[in-house]
Design goal:
This protein is α/β, with parallel strands linked by helices. It folds into two domains: about 180 residues, 3-Layer(aba) Sandwich (Rossmann fold); about 160 residues, N-(1-d-carboxylethyl)-l-norvaline Dehydrogenase, domain 2, CATH 1.10.1040.10. The protein is about 45% helix and about 15% strand. The strands form two sheets. The chain has an eight-stranded mixed sheet, with helices on both faces. A four-stranded mixed sheet has the order 4-3-10-9, with helices on both faces. A hairpin with a 2-residue loop joins strand 9 and strand 10. Helix 13 crosses helix 14 and helix 14 crosses helix 16. The longest helix has 21 residues. The protein is globular.
Length: about 350
């Protein structure tokens, strides 16, 4: 099997390195600077959690079009770009003649699979979830923050089953679990992604700082309750992902007092992220970016809730504030370290 991985960020490079090490035929389509860095240093640099370094050689192309212009045909596409680049990547595959090739989307948030199915109606779309925290050291260098190699797979739009990627991932050292409903898989991963994420970006706090303040920790659990209510209204059930008992956690969060659940979630989120700050934090720090995955995380909860008549004041407030910060309408310095301001904004959101 010949695989093209689209996206030279943390996850794309990590999968390219792991699969190459397992002797899978892999090519990578990444930004020109990543292709240049691979050529300069002789491969992708992978630093294991224990500090061991490896250099993996593989072909790297500066674009999807360049990869398809080569001599080799691809049997599977792995999409590992940020959610805000999904539509662009899907169109690049279409223009390169890649429609019909199974495409596995390994991305945070919800809605990517549906977007890809609309752009590539002739392609089986698969959903993937990876729970390994990976840090970027440079354009072609990554470090595994915590050695947890668990992978979730599910058939998505236009797909009836999961192809032979599961054995390949197993041979590359991943513990693979397959799921019947890709929506349950992706919404369950969203539950993990949104924890101590938006608040970290807005306040500039670490997850530990957020859960050290009972008021902020309670906000996280309220956001979870909202997401669970939206899932229930959508007919989507939480499933265990990466070894985490999310169905049990969901029942507990719905029924038990926030003060009882907060210390449990604090241990989970602080221990699970390793040394990494959450993803949305880097949309504003050290400098503001023009894009963010907030719309596919808390924003997706708020939008879906609005469509279904489910109240989501916490997720709506997080989304609204981050939009303003990312657009420059609001100043990040005015929100950094200001929990009272955030709590007031959420209170106002609940009255709208």
């Amino acid at each position: 099997m010949r695989i093209l991985i689209i996206g030279g960020g943390a996850i794309g490079n990590f999968l390219a390195a792991r699969l190459t090490e397992a002797r899978v035929s892999v090519a990578l389509a990444a930004r020109p600077r990543t292709a240049d860095a691979v050529a300069e240093q002789g491969g992708l640099r992978l630093v294991e959690a224990d500090g061991q370094e490896k250099l993996l050689e593989l072909p790297v192309y500066p674009s999807v079009a360049a990869a398809f212009a080569g001599d080799d045909a691809f049997d599977l596409l792995l999409l590992a770009v940020k959610s805000y680049h999904t539509e662009t990547a899907g169109r690049e595959v279409l223009e390169a003649g890649g429609e019909g090739i199974p495409l596995l989307a390994i991305q945070n948030g919800v809605g990517n699979e549906e977007s890809l199915a609309g752009i590539l109606p002739g392609s089986p779309i698969l959903a993937g979830v990876l729970t390994t925290p990976v840090a970027v050291l440079g354009p072609a260098a990554i470090k595994i923050s915590r050695p947890s190699f668990k992978f979730g797979l599910a058939p998505g739009p236009n797909a009836r089953d999961v192809p032979t990627i599961a054995p390949l991932l197993t041979n590359a050292g991943f513990a693979v679990t397959t799921y019947e409903d890709y929506r349950s898989l992706k919404w369950s991963k969203l539950l993990m992604n949104i924890l101590a994420n938006a608040q970290s970006a807005i306040l500039g706090y670490t997850p530990a700082q957020i859960f050290a303040d009972p008021r902020l920790g309670n906000l996280e659990l309220r956001a979870w309750r909202e997401a669970l209510a939206v899932m229930r209204a959508s007919g989507v059930k939480p499933v265990a992902v990466g070894g985490y008992p999310l169905p049990l956690a969901a029942r507990a969060v719905r029924r038990l007092p926030l003060g009882l659940m907060r210390p449990i979630f604090a241990r989970f989120i602080v221990g699970g992220r390793g040394e990494k700050m959450p993803s949305l934090y880097y949309d504003l720090h050290p400098k503001r970016r023009s894009h963010s995955e907030i719309e596919w995380m808390n924003g997706a909860v708020a939008r879906t809730g609005e469509n279904l008549g489910v109240s989501t004041p916490v997720n709506a407030a997080f989304t609204r504030i981050l939009r303003a910060l990312l657009s420059g309408e609001a100043n990040a310095a005015d929100w950094a370290g200001q929990p009272e301001k955030l709590l007031a904004a959420v209170a106002i959101s609940g009255k709208l």
